[in-house]
Amino acid sequence: MTKKGPEHIGKILEKILNKIEKRQEEKLEFSKILENLNLVLGKKISAHVKPYKVYKKKLILLVNAPAYLQELLFKKERIIEAVNNTFGKEIIREVNFRVGE
Fold first, then answer.
1. What pLDDT digit, counting tens, does each position of 31-84 carry?
2. Cα–Cα distance between 57 and 65 in angstroms, integer?
3. Contact 58, 49 (CB under 8 A)
4. Contact by Cβ (8 Å): 73, 97
5. How far apart are CA 35 and CA 39, in angstroms?
6. Bridge-partner residues for 61, per DSSP?
7. What whole-number distance in Å separates Cα of residue 40 and Cα of residue 81?
């Protein structure tokens, strides 16, 4: 219910469907990012990296060892460029790394 009174059920359902579509698009983007990371990083390094989430144009990656984190810091710009080239638009502006499983 809004301040003006009850809201039409059609508008409520439309809002819900829009949210669902947006989430599905985000999941599709995330899977494309994962595929692209494997190509950019190579099999050896990508085995130690897991995408955690994309939030406000930041890609957060979990790395299972500090040594690989150090190596990834040097590839930061390549990762951003490769992901954005895949989509043909700016999806991410920044990459952050965290040590974790």
1. 777 777 777 788 888 888 888 888 888 989 999 988 888 889 998 998 899 888
2. 24
3. no
4. yes
5. 7
6. 51, 97
7. 10
Structure tokens at 59: 């890609």
In the block, residue with structure tokens 């390549």: 78
Tell me the one-letter amino acid at 62: L
What are the chain's domains?
9-99 (3.30.300.180)
Q: What is the Cα gyration radius of the chain?
A: 18
Q: What is the pTM of this model?
A: 0.68
Helices (H), 6-97: 9-46, 66-74, 76-87
Q: Which of 52, 65, 60 is nearest to 76 (CA)?
A: 60
